[in-house]
Design goal:
The complex is a heterodimer of chains A (112) and B (115). Chain A is mainly beta and 112 residues long. Helices cover 0% and strands 60% of the residues of chain A. Chain A has strands at 4-7, 10-14, 19-25, 30-38, 45-51, 56-59, 62-67, 72-77, 86-94, 99-102, 106-111. In chain A, strands 2, 4, 5, 9, 10 and 11 form a 6-stranded mixed sheet that branches. Chain A has a 5-stranded antiparallel sheet with strand order 1-3-8-7-6, with no helix packed on it. Helices cover 0% and strands 52% of the residues of chain B. Chain B contains no helices and 11 strands. In chain B, strands 2, 4, 5, 6, 9, 10 and 11 form a 7-stranded mixed sheet that branches. A 4-stranded antiparallel sheet of chain B has the order 1-3-8-7, with no helix packed on it. The chains are: A mainly beta (112), B mainly beta (115). Chains A and B meet through β4, β5, β9 and β10 of A and β5, β6 and β10 of B.
Amino acid sequence: KNQVEQSPQSLIILEGKNCTLQCNYTVSPFSNLRWYKQDTGRGPVSLTIMTFSENTKSNGRYTATLDADTKQSSLHITASQLSDSASYICVVSALGYNKLIFGAGTRLAVHP
Amino acid sequence: KAGVTQTPRYLIKTRGQQVTLSCSPISGHRSVSWYQQTPGQGLQFLFEYFSETQRNKGNFPGRFSGRQFSNSRSEMNVSTLELGDSALYLCASSPVRGALTGELFFGEGSRLTVL
């Protein structure tokens, strides 16, 4: 069964600290893996999109890694800010099934 | 450049009714895809339209349908509404490559409440 699992479900960190969010998937074959940030009540915003051959991709303070062999991805947030408080969603594009499969998300709260 | 626009933003319907949601993509984007987001199931892919043709489809019943017009604007329809259809419905547009391979630009969503 094609699945995308994210951990932790929720996370609280202090402003200025770093954190890492995890995404494990069983989708095979896949076209790409994406990370989105979704503020409460808003639509998701793309952070990174990585294809099978890419290991690392950065977008400002956000760095995503992909290990296609172990089917794992991580999103590292550096020097967190209050505005990083949001849900972070991992999405895998399932090549053979012609659809996107979403993880349940990690809810991050950054406290001052 | 204007973003993805969804209307209405909020609506309330009763069981058995039908609803139509509208999405205007970013200018020049030919792909429009729809998603349902609920607290229990999270985000789920409904379907994608590209150049007025449905290209990909998720695992939703036939009560969920859509269409795309020649100007790339899209509508989504849900018939015979059920309580479980209460959700945030998101629309996203993509440049040439489409939803599965290209970047998605989401609208703010239409929040549907079914009573």
